[in-house]
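Progress note, project year one: complex with iron/sulfur cluster.
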Amino acid sequence: MSDRSLTVAIASGKGGTGKSCVAASLMVSIPGLLAADADVEEPNLSILLGAEPYASSLVETPWPVIDSGKCDRCGECVRACRFGALYMFGKAFPSPNDLCHGCGVCSMVCPRDAISETGRPVGEIRLCRAGEMTLFEGRLKVGMPNPIPVINATLDAALAEGRDLVIDCPPGTSCPMVAAVREADMVVLVTEPTPFGIADLDLALQVITDLKKPSVVVVNRADLGGSNIDALAEKYGTRVAARLPFSRGVAESYARGKPPASVDDQWKEAMIAIWETAKKTAGR
Amino acid sequence: MKTKEVTIVSGKGGTGKTSITAALAALSPLGIVLCDADVDAPDLEILLHPEPEGDFPFMGMQTAGVDTDRCTGCGKCEDVCRFGAIKVTGGKARVDKTFCEGCSACALVCPVKCIAMEDTRQGTWFRGMTEHGPMVHARLNPGGENSGMLVQLVRKVAKEVAESSGAKMILTDGPPGIACPAISAITGADAALIVTEPTMSGRHDMLRIADLCRRFGTSAAVVLNKADLSSEGSRKIEEACRENGLPLLASIPFILDVVHAVSQARIPSKELATHLEPIWRYLQGM
Ligand code: SF4
Ligand code: SF4
Ligand code: SF4
Ligand code: SF4
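Model obtained:
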């Protein structure tokens, strides 16, 4: 037994399977957990927890600034930028655009040391509270293309608390999801028993298996669809930990912004069982 | 008439975007081309069963590759990489391709020049033919990068297919979210249809994607799905549409037979026909 804190990530190959419902239900079923909303494009956990923001901090990425006193318009920086983010029009000095990834290559290559860096806000971390519960919510600024810095900053802030943590991950199987599950002791994959659910769970399990993360599967709306999730889970050496039927009651409470476990005992029991599994998986 | 492109988006997933896209295709009064730009969870083919007409590799940005024989393990590359994508383990530098943005900073600093930028396959794109028209779709490799570039690619191919086949409209099933792939899917489209649901999160996400459309100059309209699951939620969506000047084209109830159709990998066109009529009227009037 160790008293190391436990981190559980809630993910899904596609959106809308009930990922945030599971995350919020864990929060209201297990006392004392901290939450992080890493679905920074569409953060919904605060809505479900009824959590209000009380503090926030900006997430910034580096942004090049060209000193026109030093720049001789040689164009080295424009040629070195692999994102097409620097342009030099007519007689103007080079200037960066929205495609900038803040990689720092332009300032590395400038022979005249004319490029310095400042910060550009790409999102924020909001600290939210509902009763005893605390949530770190990452929010990507609308119009910003890259969610990864906001995901990383949100997780770093939440992990620094050193408490048992539930992470609501971005949907899908590309780099944002991988970034969000990186520190998890166990990943809960939420799916539904439809052909869509199966196809997307298959992709998600490939990624989670590649990352060598222990996982369990939660089948939401288990009575709608009829596809066989067990066989797929078995193929990847994982298992279905809970099956939650469709219920109009749950759907209506979700619509009003209430997590299923606060109105449905079956959800609550499933959450307690999942948390126990996570503890065992992490050797606690 | 110039070919028009409509991108169907949702902000959050699971609102029924793909089922509605498929049903719009099946009920189309015009010649159409289908484009699945949800390259991370490409589900449109499950309902449309395209006859394959070819698959092609998608090469994203180049990524860093280390010649480990020559690497001295000095760690300069790790220090300079701002994406945590290159790390020295066991005395050799290794690249995590999922996080390599391909900026080449590591290659520039390596004192023994043992890092080269190399082509990296990030996914596959496909052409196919469905009962309702040609289809272009793609799949990003799990854990892949550059989904925005792949979205641009399938849209470009869909446009070429539409022009050569004389199709009047492209229906693009867009990705969830508001970041790079979503931006790539709406930029330059003639209209965005936002499929939402009568929940607080549905409303929140609808407003964020509508904001994105405004910033990128794409006109947006809303389709409210599963409207009867919450009358209060539906009222709030109607209100939000009014306040933000978003036309609300249709309110579709929760129809169990739609779920059953999708479960059998069948397009729920019969079930949705009457509800989708006003949407086609709007699209034709564009
Ligand atoms: S590399 Fe430096 S000097 Fe050359 S154009 Fe860029 S900023 Fe100016
Ligand atoms: S920081 Fe990187 S991406 Fe941004 S302009 Fe400079 S070289 Fe281009
Ligand atoms: S900078 Fe070059 S030599 Fe040094 S660890 Fe990196 S790859 Fe190896
Ligand atoms: S190319 Fe850029 S992102 Fe990729 S490993 Fe090198 S420094 Fe890091």
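Residues B 63-64, 81, 83, 85-86, 95, 100-106 surround iron/sulfur cluster (ligand 4) (CB under 6 Å).
Chain B has a mean pLDDT of 93.
No further modelling is planned for this target in the current period.
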